[in-house]
Each structure stands twice: as structure tokens, then as C-alpha cells.
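Could someone model zinc ion with this protein?
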Amino acid sequence: MDMKLVFQDAAGFATPMLAVFAVDIATGKDADPLVALLTTSDAVSNAAATALATGEFKAVLGEQLLLHAPNGLKAQRLLIVGLGKAKTLSVDEVRKGAGTAVRSAKPRGVREMAIAFPEDHALDDEHMENLPCTLLCRALVEGAAFAERDWDTYRSERKDVSVQELTVVARDAEASTTEEIQKGFEEGQIVAAAQNFARVLVNEPGNVLTPTELGRRAAAMCAEVGLECEVHSTEKLLELGMGAFHAVAKGSAEAPALIVMTYQPKLEKGKTLAKDAPVLGLVGKGITFDTGGISIKPADGMEKMKYDMAGAAAMIGAMRAIAQLKPAVKVIGVVCSAENMPSGRAYKPGDVVTSMSGKTIEILNTDAEGRLVLADGLHYAKTLGCTHLIDAATLTGACVVALGIINAGLFSNDEAAFEKFLNAMKVSGEKFWRLPCTEDYKDQIKSQIADIMNTGGTRWGGAISAAMFLKEFADETPWVHLDIAGCAWIEEVKPWQPKGPSGIAVRSIIEWVRGYEA
Ligand code: BES
Ligand code: ZN
Ligand code: ZN
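Reply:
Sure, complex below.
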């Protein structure tokens, strides 16, 4: 979808469909909805007035009202999109509203559309401070680009219902405001493209996206945006002593891939990064299919395990945006990709493996493979010079039991790194909830015969056992762990989102990285 930004009165913009946002400004608990449009254009308000006066449209989030041949507008259609109550309006509703507008246009065969940038918010000044123009425009662009995707790539008879061109129409204002909007517009496109890049990878079936193919796609992306990229396989795993990663990989006929992407900031002439400047390590779980291995999973729902590489996809996507946003901080992306299969060469419960760090691991369950590949990935990132680590992984079903599908799990051994992530979430709008990984949980991974074991001695707190395991390998290095098992695949259709890959964590990781800029 091509995007454009213009500054003019929305009423004079000729387009097959103009979308405008609406909020409910009624105060008091049981008051009837009172709908206000977020536009300063009198002509747009007038065109909607008769329809709104019926009281039919309540401006509930995701609600839509479509008017044909709106009076006094150059647009052929006016789509009014509800964002919910004015009092609780945040950039998140704008992201969802923009998505709703696009998903409403698609089945109608509308190929070109416009969205009126939300203005005159009918809100008090204090609330307005939470809605800066840059973030509003960014969210609008992100929501629209997210919603445009449908996952019918593998249907032989695809219905082409794509919106090919979207114009954001903002009122002509003072230069400082238009610059802010422009900045959000550009950032939004970079971030949205990164998220969609990750979603495409997650959507691919396991037979198409093998570890080798994931390596190829990462390398192609890196070449396109100017990142260094190396893709290694079995030989390198053995040379580095990655006994944990290799144990998982060796049951499959597909070779593993260790993908290393490096972003080195180019500073202005004469400037160099301080010697003690942070180096950020982004480590992703890239299991392209998780059968569970010898501890095989039940057949029901096993097909979902093609998305067990969503953590890797998030890191690859984030690296793409980092290359384009060019923050002044060095970033290394490390993806550990393998297929977890049962076979005559597969690792077994009871095996003891030696990780790259030297720590020995007793395998109790071959389905707890994600933590094994990440153990070597985290340690390897440290040997590459990373001073701060973040990992993303569809790691445990237990995390889904604990938090459901609304919040993903977050763990950290460092308050400062955690704070940076909290700030990142304010921009990304993604939801993560912190769970503990304090030393008193360590007994859960104590082994009888090795340094640690790969599953908890108890079935309680399974997401925490997994985090405690990873913490052993992050060790003293500040580290954030994201367990995205419940949020990587959307099962619920909403007006702003289709079923399928979510691209969760891409936006937050990008912002977390930017939080470390020199
Ligand atoms: N890939 C799964 C976790 C998962 C579950 C991802 C649901 C997405 C949705 C992971 O490798 C796994 O199988 N974990 C086991 C760990 C157990 C054996 C300790 C689990 O959660 O059951
Ligand atoms: Zn597993
Ligand atoms: Zn897995």
C-alpha cells in the first residue's frame, strides 16, 4: 500500500472514500452517547450531521457508518469510524480506528482511500498532551498498514481486495505541527513495514520456511537495507560448542541456521561511540516447526507450531526498521533457527548436553527446546560484545495460561532495562506484563545430575521456570525476556485485525533499542 500525506481541508480532497474518526463526548455514567467528529472541517461535519442526528451511530470503537455521495465533499463516500469514549481516547484507538477504516474499504473494492488526521479532539488540554501529533500519525499509519494484510497468499483464487493507495489528510497548520505529523508519518511506515515483514515470515508454513530459508530471507532483507549478515549452520554450531542448540537441531533432516545481523551506526564526521557505549543483543527463538521431538506433542493443534519462530521473526523485523531509523547505538541480532523433530538422531529425555557457556543441561522434555537454542544464542551474543540483551520467544504454554492472549509475558533481571522497555511500550501500544524471575524460583530447574535441567521440577509456574533457565545464560548482563506464545498468532477477528500472525514485539523492540541511543 502506497501512502501519501497531504495538508489541506479534507472536504476538498477527491477520493473514492474518506474516513473520519468519531468519539463519544457524553459525560456521566448513563448519559446517551453524544457523537463528535475529530475534524476541524465544517464541511465534513455538515455532511455527517443528518446521519449522526438519528442517534444510530454511537461511536463505539470499531463501529462504522458509511455515507454515499456526501453533500459538499469531493469524496465519493464518507466513512465514519468510532473510536469509543473521548475521555479514554489514546493513540491506540487511533491505530485501531485506522485499521477499521482500511478493513471496511477492502471488501467494497475501494482501492484508493483517505483518512482524515484526527483533529479538534473535543478533549481538554491535559488529555491532548497524551496525544502528540507524531505518535497519532505514526499509530494511524501503523494501524492502516497492519489491517491491509490478508493471509490468502496460498489460495489459488485470491480475491484481490487490496487498498493500493492511502492518503492521510491533515489540516494545514503551523510548520512545527506539520513537521511533527510528517515525522510520525515516516516513522510509522518504517515500523509498519518491519512488523509486516515479520508477519509474512510467521505466516509461512514449515515446509516453505525451513531454517535455511529463514536464513536466506534474513540475508536478503539485510542486503536490501544495508545490514551486515552472516548465516551459519551445523559446522559453526559445533565449532562454537553450542551443544544445546545443536541437540535440538540434530533430529531434523533440515539444517539449522544461526543468523547474525549487525547494525553499526554511522555517526557524524569526527564523532565516535564512547568506549563504554551499550551494544544491544536481540536474540530470537526460530523453531520453524515444533513437533515436540521425542516428547511429541498431541496431534490436535500441532499445525500451529509453524509459528514457533515468531520471536526470530520479531528480531529480523526489528533489525530491518533499525537499519532505516538509524539510531546511534550498535545492535546485533542473533537468531537461532532449527526444526524440532523426532528421529533416530533426535535428542532424548535423559540426555545431558553441554551448552556454549560450559553449563551442562539435563534434558527432561525435548518439547522444552526453545530455551535450549536461546541459551546458546544469549551466550553467543555476549561473546560478540553485547552489553544488554533482549530475547523474544514463543516459549511456554504456561505463559498463555497465566496471561491469556491480551498480554505477553515479560521478565527481566535489571530494573533499568525493564524501565526502558516500559517506555518503549508507551510508544508501541503493545501489551506485556512483568512476571517474576527472582532467585527463589531457581530450585525449579535444579538437576540431579547436571548443572540445570530444561524443564521445571514442578508444573507450576512453567513460564517462570523457562525464564529462570534463560537467566542462567544472561547471567550478570542486563536482560529482558519476552514470552510471546499467547500473542504471536491472532485467533480473534476484530474490525481492525484479521486472524493470523500478529507481529507482536517488533514495535516494542524497536523503541527499546532507540531508548539506548547515544
Ligand atoms: N513452542 C512451545 C510453546 C508454545 C505453546 C508456543 C503454545 C505457542 C503456543 C514450546 O516449545 C513448548 O512446547 N513448551 C512446553 C514446555 C514444557 C515441555 C516444559 C510447554 O509450554 O508445554
Ligand atoms: Zn516445544
Ligand atoms: Zn517451541
